[in-house]
């Protein structure tokens, strides 16, 4: 019997730092992403979760792994961030973003819940944009608000199960997602860091540590936990 982490998007950025943190704490890790994460102690499931049918290819393998676990932590981390606006966001594009950022989490929960015992946890990765909006990120903002709703429903629907849940909401974190979104423009990155009270970007490891803490402390249940270094409000 062992402790298992099931994580989506563990191949890079915040996800990869989180995988390394759980491995260092004695967990076996099951990672879902399109590219492989080649680390000892990791079972890789290569899937494209933006496709509704991703579950069909791996459900037997996932169920079998989960059945052997003494306790399970699920971290819903994979997401995409596009530039779009309420004026031009294509409905099909919104559907695809919701599939990866929200619906895939529901699908994974439903695969794992029958095997999850008391002491297990379901941790969602939201964003500062889970509770506020900025212009030009309509599909992302919409999906990250939905993640909070899914987390709150998780807390209510699983009452009495001994499973706890949280939505950790990172601020600007130095990963491929952020750098690509900003066109790898160092001037913009510096300006963004200047908008944070601590004057710097967050390192992926800091979010990994927060996810670890949330997973190990059932007192934080049904809560939104912001981890953004403090953003300067205008
Ligand atoms: N970086 C930030 O500033 C920031 C701020 C707030 C919130 N967040 C949130 O933190 C989480 C991690 O972000 P990050 O910055 O670490 O992003 P990242 O570096 O872009 O990593 C995203 C991960 O998601 C996986 N992924 C993307 N599309 C996928 C798909 N179709 N199917 C399966 N996996 C897929 C990627 O793996 P493959 O490419 O191998 O599939 C990768 O492992 C996200 O939920 C993001 O919204 C980030």
Structural description of this entry:
With 234 residues, this protein is α/β, with parallel strands linked by helices. The protein has one domain: Rossmann fold. The chain is 41% helix and 18% strand. The chain contains 7 helices and 7 strands; from the N terminus they run E-H-E-E-H-E-H-E-H-E-H-H-H-E. It has helices spanning 13-24, 54-67, 91-112, 138-157, 176-181, 186-194, 204-216, and strands spanning 2-8, 28-33, 42-46, 69-76, 121-125, 164-170, 223-227. A 7-stranded parallel sheet has the order 3-2-1-4-5-6-7, with helices on both faces. Strand 5 (121-125), helix 4 (138-157) and strand 6 form a beta-alpha-beta unit. Helix 1 (13-24) crosses helix 7 (204-216), helix 2 (54-67) packs parallel to helix 3 (91-112) and helix 3 (91-112) packs parallel to helix 4. The longest helix is centred in the middle third of the chain and has 22 residues, at 91-112. The chain is globular. The chain starts with a strand and ends in a 7-residue tail after the last strand. The mean pLDDT is 97. Bound molecules: NADP nicotinamide-adenine-dinucleotide phosphate. NADP nicotinamide-adenine-dinucleotide phosphate (NAP) is lined by residues 8-15, 32-35, 47-50, 77-80, 100, 125, 127, 170, 172-173, 175-178. It holds the Pfam family adh_short. It comes from Litorivivens lipolytica. This is NAD(P)-dependent dehydrogenase (Short-subunit alcohol dehydrogenase family).
Quantity of strands, as a count: 7
Q: Strand content of the residues, in percent? A: 15-25%
- Walk across the major sheet and give the strand order: 3-2-1-4-5-6-7
Instruction: Give helix and strand order, one letter per element, not per position.
Output: EHEEHEHEHEHHHE
Major beta-sheet overview = 7 strands, parallel
Count every helix, treating DSSP H or I runs of 4 or more residues as helices. Answer: 7
Ligand kinds: NADP nicotinamide-adenine-dinucleotide phosphate
**Which structural class fits the helix and strand makeup?**
alpha/beta
């Amino acid at each position: 019997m062992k402790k298992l982490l099931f994580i989506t998007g563990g191949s890079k950025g915040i996800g990869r730092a989180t995988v390394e943190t759980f491995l260092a704490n004695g967990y076996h890790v099951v990672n879902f992403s399109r590219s492989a994460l080649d680390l000892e102690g990791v079972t890789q499931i290569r899937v494209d979760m933006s496709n509704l049918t991703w579950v069909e290819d791996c459900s037997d393998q996932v169920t079998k792994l989960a059945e052997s676990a003494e306790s399970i932590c699920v971290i819903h981390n994979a997401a995409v961030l596009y530039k779009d606006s309420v004026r031009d966001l294509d409905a099909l594009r919104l559907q695809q973003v919701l599939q990866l950022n929200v619906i895939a989490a529901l699908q994974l929960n439903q695969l794992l819940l029958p095997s999850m015992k008391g002491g297990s946890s379901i941790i969602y990765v939201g964003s500062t944009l889970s509770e506020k909006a900025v212009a030009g990120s309509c599909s992302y903002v919409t999906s990250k608000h939905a993640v909070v709703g899914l987390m709150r429903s998780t807390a209510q629907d699983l009452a009495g199960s001994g499973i706890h849940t949280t939505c950790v909401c990172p601020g600007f974190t130095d990963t491929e997602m952020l750098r690509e979104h900003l066109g790898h423009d160092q001037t913009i990155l510096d300006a963004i860091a200047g908008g944070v009270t601590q004057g710097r970007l967050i390192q992926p490891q800091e979010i990994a540590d927060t996810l670890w803490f949330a997973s190990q402390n059932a007192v934080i249940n049904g809560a939104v936990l912001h981890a953004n270094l403090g953003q300067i409000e205008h």
